[in-house]
Amino acid sequence: MSLRAEASTPRVATVRRFGPAQRWVHRTTAALMGVCVVTAACLYVPQLAELVGRRELVVRVHECAGLALPVPVLVGLASRAFRADLGFLNRFGPHDRVWLHAALVRDKRRSSRPAGKFNAGQKIYAAWITGATLVMLGTGLLMWFTHLTPLVWRTSATFVHDWLALTIGIVLAGHIGMAIGDPEARRGLRTGRVSREWAQHEHPLWRP
């Protein structure tokens, strides 16, 4: 009975969206970023700091995770597919401006949101989080090696590091919220494949 039911159920056509390299880079970077965010919260929120304790250990874990953040991307550069995706993310064409305008005016019509493999929002997020990560890494190093820089540099670095960390936390919350609302996109990052219907609807200019 179950075999007949399974046979009668039409299979959903899928296309490959991400290979193993892209998925590994995303998962590893997400894990490291998660460690950075959690340890930062334990360092700056008094209630969490008191609950967790062992501040020195938390600081060391935070520093190691922060230093390791660029590593997955650097390793991923060995993959041709990953480099191709970076190329897609780095190109902002006329259709991306159309997509962005539609998003700003909340126009949800498919024809008003043309997108290739990545839409304009994903490209902007990727560029912003990359820049923010590099700034966090630089300011973190200034805070770590206190004997190498003047006091005013360290004070400025601490100010930028703290406020940018808060901003990253807010942006990441939005990123995760949007991912929760799109199961098919999550499936693409989990399995590497998405339904052809979703691809045509969300990324009509993408030719997998």
From TrEMBL:
One of its GO terms (molecular function) is formate dehydrogenase (quinone) activity. Residues 17-180 form the Cytochrome b561 bacterial/Ni-hydrogenase domain. It comes from the Bacteria. It is found in: Cell membrane. GO terms for biological process: anaerobic respiration; formate oxidation; respiratory electron transport chain. Its main location: membrane. The chain crosses the membrane at residues 24-45, 124-143, 163-181. Pfam families: Ni_hydr_CYTB (PF01292). Gene3D superfamilies: Transmembrane di-heme cytochromes, Chain C. GO terms for cellular component: formate dehydrogenase complex; plasma membrane. SUPFAM superfamilies: Transmembrane di-heme cytochromes. Keywords: Cell membrane, Membrane, Transmembrane, Transmembrane helix. This is Formate dehydrogenase. It is a multi-pass membrane protein. InterPro entries: Cyt_b561_bac/Ni-Hgenase, Di-haem_cyt_TM, FDH_cytochrome_b556_subunit.
